[in-house]
Design a protein that fits this description.
This protein is α/β, with parallel strands linked by helices and about 250 residues long. The chain is about 40% helix and about 20% strand. It has 8 helices and 11 strands. The strands form 3 sheets. The protein has a 7-stranded parallel sheet, with helices on both faces. A two-stranded parallel sheet has the order 6-10. Strand 1, helix 1 and strand 2 form a beta-alpha-beta unit. The chain starts with a strand and ends with a helix. The relative contact order is 0.14.
Length: about 250
């Protein structure tokens, strides 16, 4: 099966390419580095020719409100148009758990607009909404650091390993479209402040996490403690945080 992975050279895309190839498929990584531009459309028709499935895991390079909205809407239109021309039978897109609850952010407004554009297109589709990745816990700390301390709210948090996301996408790609949304989360639930505190401690980072119910999450003031976690029917990854952390330390 020819499967085109838009954003196939990034964190999730590269892992997805490896997984699909190991499973005996013929994946193609489509990104600016491989000559495919989903904004201008350059190389897109050629890349999608003969593709049975397209998986879009591309992320916007600029998160300014206007720029990020333009990126996700333009790319969605261009990709679905190329899929129509190619006769592609399944469009798979990666999104974020809780997107509709995070509309105070221009990024999440753009992700919701992308989802709506995909659903409105004629191509059968599946949207995988994933929780935050373990790999980005350090970035959360960086984004929240103020004068050497890290104020964070005690929100419920259920992150997962990037390779579990790639595995879920691989399974969805070779299955039938659900024409709807699937949620994916990690196997364990934490409090955001507690997990970041644990991560910093176990990686030898001297920064001190301060629990603050009014602290923002990536600039968002969230009053719903469940804003970042999925519903009851979410699929669960298999990698536990401690196991991922020990492997990361070993690397």
């Amino acid at each position: 099966m020819k499967i085109v992975v838009i954003g196939g050279t990034g964190l999730i895309g590269s892992k997805l390419i490896e997984r699909l190839r190991a499973d005996g498929h013929d994946p193609l990584a489509a990104s600016p580095g491989t000559g495919v531009d989903i904004i201008t459309g350059k190389g897109l028709d050629e890349a999608l020719a003969g593709a049975e499935v397209v998986v879009d895991v591309a992320n916007a390079p600029d998160w300014d409100d206007t720029a990020v909205m333009d990126f996700f809407l333009t790319s969605a239109r261009n990709i679905t148009a190329a899929e129509t021309a190619a006769g592609t039978g399944h469009h798979v897109a990666l999104s974020v758990v809780g997107t509709e609850r995070l509309q105070g952010s221009g990024y999440f407004r753009a992700k919701l607009a992308q989802e709506e554009a995909i659903k409105a297109a004629a191509i059968p589709s599946t949207i995988l909404r994933a929780t935050q990745f373990f790999e980005f816990v350090g970035r959360i700390a960086d984004a929240s650091t103020r004068d050497g301390t890290v104020p964070l709210p005690p929100l419920l948090f259920q992150p997962e390993a990037a390779h579990d996301v790639a595995a879920a996408l691989a399974g969805i790609a070779v299955g039938a479209p659900v024409n709807g949304t699937v949620e994916l989360a990690g196997p364990e639930r934490f409090r955001l402040d507690e997990l970041v505190r644990r991560y910093l401690s176990e990686t030898g980072d001297p920064r001190h996490v301060v629990t603050d119910v009014d602290a923002p999450y990536y600039g968002l003031q969230l009053t719903d403690e469940r804003a970042l976690i999925p519903g009851d029917n979410a699929r669960l990854g298999t990698t536990r945080f401690a196991d991922w952390l020990s492997r990361s330390a070993a690397r």
